[in-house]
Design a protein that fits this description.
Helices cover 69% and strands 11% of the residues. It has 159 residues and is mostly helical. Helix 2 (41-53) crosses helix 4 (71-83) and helix 3 crosses helix 4 (71-83).
Length: 159
């Protein structure tokens, strides 16, 4: 079994600081990626949600909920993504009043080409970690993502 690389000790405060730095760098990276794809960050984020959903096509309402925007705002986002040839809207087979959002294959290829070198490097970085450490990372990312979502909901309700 792979043991993983020895890790230096760290305090929760150091880990929090490193996380904040990662988030800030990620935000700057998303701005750069969006610019290279001729999108804004919100539109790129929404396109990411469409990709994440895969064959389970999202409705406009699903997308608004995931992006924490109004249905009116998501209409504008979808209009821009459709004009830029990133998505198409398809009628929902179960409800004619709703539409589902599908990613255009050419757009998927463009986005993958831009992100793939980074994802390859991160995947290589995972080789320094044991399976147990990767399980901890996955658990931490998943739980922290949920906590962040819950906190955003609390902030919105307080407004």
């Amino acid at each position: 079994m792979q043991q993983g690389t020895p890790r230096p000790p760290a305090t929760p405060a150091q880990a929090l600081s490193a996380m904040d730095h990662l988030i800030a760098t990620g935000m700057i990276g998303q701005q750069e990626m969006a610019q290279r794809l001729n999108l804004n960050v919100t539109d790129l984020t929404c396109f990411g949600f469409v990709l994440e959903a895969g064959d389970t096509l999202l409705t406009a309402g699903d997308l608004a909920e995931r992006a924490h925007v109004t249905t009116g705002a998501v209409t504008g986002i979808l209009n821009r993504l459709e004009r830029a040839d990133y998505v198409t809207r398809r009628p929902d087979p179960d409800d004619r009043r709703r539409v589902r959002v599908a990613a255009n294959p050419d757009a998927v290829a463009r986005v993958k080409a831009l992100y793939e070198p980074h994802h390859t490097r991160v995947t290589e970085l995972f080789s320094d970690y044991s399976p147990a450490e990767i399980a901890v990372l996955y658990d931490w990312f998943t739980r922290t993502g949920r906590l962040m979502g819950e906190y955003l909901e609390e902030l919105r309700k307080g407004d």
